[in-house]
Write a structure and sequence with these properties.
It catalyses: 2 GTP = 3',3'-c-di-GMP + 2 diphosphate. The chain is α+β, with helices and mostly antiparallel strands and 242 residues long. It has helices at 19-27, 40-55, 65-82, 96-103, 105-122, 146-162, 192-208, 226-232, and strands at 87-93, 128-131, 136-141, 165-167, 171-173, 177-183, 214-216. It binds guanosine-5'-triphosphate.
Length: 242
């Protein structure tokens, strides 16, 4: 990230309305700011801290939907330029409503956090796991060879299936997830909507075939839609598809 210009005069922190920003940083444990209040380094740290907060899911610490969508856009650009295979996985906790109904929302939240931990443990540093809805997660896996996709999706599903979640004094819970996945079409500029729709279709298939399973779309190229061909040959504008 580029630093503030050297010539910028120090700001008077009293003249800036930073109370709420500083309070948010403090609440999220990011209040050890470098430099003197008002200095460029200090202001940059405030901005960086706020950017970090706005891209994280507060319950799990994973990337949130906003950060996920930005990463999806970047990945689509990369795949269109490099032709590298990239996989998008969508995950949904099975029968999660029952967990909330039987054990309450606090236990439900613990389950969501446990799933997030499993996800983070199963993927490479270059992958982006995100919580994109209540009990819905997604993972963007750049440069993921087709032969590896099913393996990584199954690894995640099994890790979650094997996890014993403890809550309170004696509650021990097991849960499962359904996983759907789709590759971005290579050498074609797709859209986030089309890519997520494909992965979502596979997730829907995993749910309807009995849950606790992974369904991946058969690998790319032949799956390029009419809209994506339109984007490739310049007959469709990306905005038309949103
Ligand atoms: N504890 C907790 N519950 C949440 C949160 N966000 C959404 N939920 C709950 O998640 C549940 C989702 O239930 P459904 O969409 O019916 O899905 P499901 O029971 O998981 O069933 P299937 O997806 O069909 O297997 C609802 O009861 C929501 O209230 C959250 O942040 N914390």
């Amino acid at each position: 990230m580029s630093a503030l210009p050297e010539s910028l005069p120090p700001a008077d922190p009293a003249a800036l309305q930073l109370d709420r920003a500083l309070q948010l940083l403090q609440q999220s444990g990011r209040d050890a700011l470098p430099g003197a209040p008002g200095s460029a380094a200090w202001l940059q740290a405030v901005i960086d801290g706020l950017c970090e907060i706005s891209s994280r899911d507060a319950l799990t610490g994973l990337s949130n939907r906003r950060a996920f969508e930005a990463a999806l856009n970047r990945e689509i650009d990369r795949v269109a330029r490099s032709g590298e295979p990239a996989l998008l996985l969508m995950l949904d906790i099975d029968h999660f409503k029952r967990v909330n109904d039987h054990h309450g929302h606090i236990v439900g939240d613990q389950v969501i956090r446990a799933v997030a931990e499993c996800l983070a443990e199963c993927v490479r540093p270059m992958d982006l796991p995100a919580r994109i809805g209540g009990e819905e997660f997604a993972v963007i896996l750049p440069n993921c060879p087709p032969a590896f996709g099913q393996t990584v999706a199954e690894r995640i599903r099994q890790r979650i299936e094997q996890k014993v979640i403890t809550a309170g004094l004696s509650l021990r819970l097991g849960i499962t997830v359904s996983v759907g996945g789709a590759y971005a079409p290579q050498w074609v500029r797709s859209t986030p909507a089309l890519w997520t729709e494909r992965a979502d279709l596979q997730l829907y298939r995993a749910k309807s075939e009995g849950r606790n399973r992974t369904c991946l779309e058969p690998t790319p190229v032949s799956n390029v839609s009419a809209e994506e061909k339109g984007l490739l040959f310049g007959t469709t504008m990306p905005g038309d598809l949103e």
